[in-house]
């Protein structure tokens, strides 16, 4: 399922030389130069020159998501705190930052996943020096009152209710709670509903959350576009140099191996289309293994537009409206979920049989090497073509670096996409896509449950 916008010890950013460039080999797979500096306080600053005259993207990735929420009753705080980061400081009270950025014409937004929180600002290079000062101020000196905190907590509760009006959130919650018994991936980015309702009473905890996770060593800046590199490094060093909060680590519960197939069913009270999800536990995304690339390719190979399953279920028999696999990289072992939206409940057994048949065929081999190469080329080309603006580049760099812990993680991922072999696909499917490692999620709308058609 798609995580909402979706370990043993908290991993800090790796210690690189004080100033480093992307390795020459990586430029074969990622077309832009990464200039990386780590400040004495641990803040990683990545600059990427991009041919975008007068335009720059400024993206801040903090390695904190719902994964880090280990205390009972405190789920949803990573996402909630994304909201609080716009509340202002003593130097720039609430609303002033937005007025200044709006005056320059900057676009400003943020999102939270299971593993990271990303803040993005995009606009004219002419305002970059002021932007650096504003961002450094809020990450070091965030201030908000308890009434403001409580008001925002109610807004987050409203966001939950809005999402809960459709079936996707309920599906996501049911799958996470069933597939994970110990790991914090068992709750969504929004958090458990009871915890969200209790947030207005957690003002003091919110302050400790800020101190714990919003530290320089847990943060990476990505500055992409048209700028003077020496000036930017000087400005960032001056603005962020006084940020001295110390890094924190917590123990993330390890999910034990699943030993038998699990099932969970959702009865949806409103008319909608039935859903059928097969989800297997799979490894974490790492820069030094091909596991993330294998899962991306596997999704296309099993249910993509050129797959036998897609041709049979979507095009020919029309049992299924859509087939999707959401393979967002995760810091810890997560799930490989095939999500089928059925045209009718009566097709469920046939759809399940076809999907399992294709997984069995892949596990037994052989893999169609020609189709595999076409998928690899298409994925790499598509990813590179999506890097059309400085903002695209900065956000993709932040996503992969935030999960994998290296500024050049996106380049590593692109390289791995092109090097996966047929044998690796087969071995991966044989090892992980087995019944004892599977959770089956079904959703039936109320009318179908009663024997009718929605």
TrEMBL record:
Q: Give the molecular function GO annotations.
A: metal ion binding
Gene3D superfamilies found in the cross-reference section: Metalloenzyme, LuxS/M16 peptidase-like
Sorted UniProt keywords: Signal
Cite the Peptidase M16 N-terminal domain residue spans from the record.
61-190
Q: Where is the Peptidase M16 C-terminal domain?
A: 207-375
**Signal sequence, start to end:** 1-20
Q: Is DNA repair included in the keywords of this UniProt record? A: no
- For the keyword Signal, the answer is yes
Q: Sorted alphabetically, which InterPro entries does this protein's record hold?
A: Metalloenz_LuxS/M16 (IPR011249), MPP/UQCRC_Complex (IPR050361), Pept_M16_N (IPR011765), Peptidase_M16_C (IPR007863)
Cited SUPFAM superfamilies: LuxS/MPP-like metallohydrolase
Family note: Belongs to the peptidase M16 family.
User: What protein name is recorded for this chain?
Assistant: M16 family peptidase
Q: What is the lineage of its organism?
A: Bacteria, Pseudomonadati, Myxococcota, Myxococcia, Myxococcales
